[in-house]
Amino acid sequence: MRKAVAILSILLFILALHATSYAYSGNIVVDGKVVNYNVPDITITIDGNKFDTGNNPPLILDGNTIVPLRSIGQGLGASVNWDGSTQTITVTKGKVFKFFIGKNYATVDGNKVQLPAPARLINNNTSYVPMRFLFESLGYDVKWIGDKYLIQVTSKVTVPPTSSNVNITDFSSSYANGKYTITVKADGPLTYKQGTINDSSGVRLYFDFSNAINAVTNKQISINQGGLNMAYIGQNQLQPAITRLVVSMTTSLPYTITQSQDKKEFDISFNIGNNSSSSNNGPLIYIDPGHGGSDPGAIGVGGIHEANIALAIGLKLKTLLDNGGFRTMISRTTDTYVGLYDRPDQANNAGADAFVSIHCDAFDSPSANGTTVLYYPNGYNGDTRDEKTFAQIIHDNLMKEINTTDRGLSERPKLVVLNQTKMVAVLVETGFVTSPTDAQLLTDDNFQWKIAQGIYNGLVQYFTELKNGTIKSTIS
Ligand SMILES: [Zn+2]
């Protein structure tokens, strides 16, 4: 045994030549036997602070790091009692731990637990036990940083009690009236965080349900319609428990989330149309995301570009219209420059039924905010279009979806996209990129969907009323 310790000591010495200090070396008495000890000094830190065990430093014996029981136990708030007659040390902190000198087991509340090395009596007066077992018993996490001879001890992160977890009991889907709905049910209220992953394989929406244990067996639903690929659910993490719902789709689709009053049911619905395979034959809408490429438009809070926001909203509007049976054209699908006159020209040449230009406002003062719908004045310069009715319907439907400041309608005879177009046209100033509150909304994916949804609803109403004969596209 002595030889083994000596060889180990030499080995550790060679391995740790760079270590700085050997304050504790020479002969020590281990369980009554003299041992030559020559190992670099070992440091203990507890939550980053050095913990000094005084004249009884941590030791490495037979490859096991052992630490003085009393100074550490008491330092960490346990009571420590030594019974010399039975060579037993009792440590109490929540549970009762008993260590026995020379024995490689302990008892925890009376139950025997194996130790990696026996409890030792050093220099005939100080009991030592394996460091990891002791710190973990007292509610700490331990890391041994070998190259620094450092025992790094940290308070355990408290995990929420498992009783606060809910069980996910149902994962299902349904389809009705063009709406595809994915449902998650639990035996308690569901709370969640959501996110989106975009990569070459498409778009994945995910919802992380907090403190939720996944208890369903059907973990995957194949959808494969209207751009929706599949949905699946699984345990993402156990402590704390997080169950993740993922919906994968080929492109970003609009959705609505509803939860029951008691929050035990979570529904996400996608409007994928009645028959996504048949080609659209509805009115032709020309969507015009403003600016682009070398023309970023207004630059707002945090350097955001009007052109990028307009494009994001325009593409969402296109998705809604495509799924809703409309035919669509769009002036750009990427951040590219399109000439100002090219936009109305394209719409005119294609015989579009309506023209929707999407922009953001800007002003010197950050206090200016809100949403405005611009249109060409009825009858101006002999124009025969009923622009005001169209603008009013778009405006009213848009403001039902969003709660920005309502700046109403505004007549703009000089705007090219309004005076060169031959069909009904609006220019929607969705919000001010220079307003901190508007800017935050405008860059939010969900808010962009709401704007698109509002404009979409307006277009649906306009063309329904046109068909019903309750309105006309021209003034008479
Ligand atoms: Zn603009």
Automatic annotation (TrEMBL):
Occurrences of domain MurNAc-LAA (ranges): 344-460
Quote one Gene Ontology molecular function term. N-acetylmuramoyl-L-alanine amidase activity
Instruction: Indicate the secretion signal residues.
Output: 1-23
Q: Which SUPFAM superfamilies match?
A: Copper amine oxidase, domain N (SSF55383), Zn-dependent exopeptidases (SSF53187)
| E.C. designation(s) | 3.5.1.28
| Alphabetical UniProt keywords | Hydrolase, Signal
What residue ranges carry the coiled-coil annotation? none
Family matches, as InterPro entries: Cu_amine_oxidase-like_N, Mao_N_sf, MurNAc-LAA_cat, N-acetylmuramoyl_amidase_3
Name the SMART domains for this protein.
Answer: Ami_3
GO annotation, cellular component aspect: outer membrane-bounded periplasmic space
A single BP term in Gene Ontology: peptidoglycan catabolic process
Q: Which PANTHER family match?
A: N-ACETYLMURAMOYL-L-ALANINE AMIDASE (PTHR30404), N-ACETYLMURAMOYL-L-ALANINE AMIDASE AMIC (PTHR30404:SF0)
Its name, as the record gives it, is N-acetylmuramoyl-L-alanine amidase
